[in-house]
């Protein structure tokens, strides 16, 4: 499974990792899973890999995941540094070569992020009634004047708006056993800014890993 996910190029996550301006949190963790078969251990050297062929998105996501892990005393390496983007192959680097390099560099875990689905949600925005105190203006002198002035402002109709919802899957693999250790699903609404989105996604994801006792709870100073 790990080899397949590392090999495949999935849907670009440039649009996924973004926030709605003014919202406290546009990225939410929907659920997580932790393998009961693998003994708990402290991972100290982790490779972070954003599985996308969009170079900008890959850099932003891996940068922020790296920063979040390093803040917890974990040595993190970006996959883009191990295997820079290449136009020679659309299927990505050879997975066996990739695993050999990861092991030879002493890494003990791989953290991947990939877009798995996107949907459109329709939301109704209610309208509002207009009201103003009575005043002695000329349009009150006749029905025609009153009607012409007020009718367009009496009611502001509601409308429907569509928001894109993107679903992301984050997996942690144990290098030695090549087994899935931890997995989480998250969603993000109406992307606008990649920089802020990548930062928020990384923060929410690593915090969830901490809560699930996959990572140290004490942030390194």
UniProtKB/TrEMBL annotation:
PROSITE patterns cross-referenced by the UniProt entry: PROKAR_LIPOPROTEIN
Source taxon at top rank: Bacteria
Protein name: DUF4136 domain-containing protein
